[in-house]
Amino acid sequence: MFSGILIDKGESGQTVTVSELDEAQLPDGDVTVDVEFSTLNFKDGLAITGKSPVVRKFPMVPGIDLAGVVTDSSHAAFSAGDRVVLNGWGVGETHWGGLAQKARLSGDWLIPLPSAFDSRQAMAIGTAGYTASLCVEALLKAGVTPEQGEILVTGATGGVGSVAIALLTKAGFSVAAATGKATETAYLENLGATTVIDRAELSGPGKPLQKERWAGAVDTVGSHTLANVCAQTRYGGAVAACGLAQGMDFPASVAPFILRGVSLLGIDSVMAPKPPRLAAWDRLARDLDADALESIVREISLGEAIAAAGELMDGTVRGRIVVDVNR
């Protein structure tokens, strides 16, 4: 038996409990993992609170991330004792996820835990940090350089935003951070932000083309914010879009793209193939300062994760939440 968070759905609606589960209940897969740490991402918050139909099959163990030790494997790439990381691949949506003490998965979804990190640090990064790294990689491949001006990061106090600021600063960029939390200025400056702006400057309807401000951007918010960011991006700049905290809509025009040559780069972390995953984790291992990482982490137990998911949806969480599934 092992403990895990279980989401179920009946006639009266969704229930979420910490439950005792049997290994025979685990779904099919060719690698079994003793999970050491998981984490809470925005998608996990949506799943646990039921605010969006993230979960496609019931019952479901949520958790799109995990790090732990292989206990059994018939996959050629992994053996018992290997330390592994998983991000995405529909885990926590259609396949039991990481918010439990055990998981059974496809070995094709796993990557080796980078030697620079232990399991806790890997989950301090999680899908949020891995997505931030994918965004930085995309901006650099698009030709955005520090000499071209400031990079904007929206949703800056969230997991993606926090890691993006740290990585962009390490890459030599001057970073502007957009947040609705004026009290977090010192936190953002600690991560490397040189400018902090109120998200209200970006969150309302705006003109199709606005004053050029940003060489590029990492946007975690979507909706009017993303439209305004594109409208303010300088000629030839690029915007990496990876989130929808404000909404899935994109009330914009083609003006920034056809008059300023702005590129909108879509970032998908869930189904990204192995080469960009490994490149993103290599950047994290090389460029993410351990002290900066620790400064954005709050650790909780498995039993505390359900309440913390509600906090995440209320927008009161700063940085990253790591879940020790064994306490």
UniProtKB/TrEMBL annotation:
Origin superkingdom: Bacteria
Pfam families, sorted: ADH_N (PF08240), ADH_zinc_N (PF00107)
Residue span(s) of domain Enoyl reductase (ER): 13-323
Record-level Gene Ontology MF annotations: acryloyl-CoA reductase (NADPH) activity
Xref: InterPro entries: Acrylyl-CoA_reductase_AcuI, ADH-like_C, ADH-like_N, ER, GroES-like_sf, NAD(P)-bd_dom_sf, Zn-ADH-like_protein
Family matches, as NCBIfam families: oxido_YhdH
Name of this chain's protein: Alcohol dehydrogenase
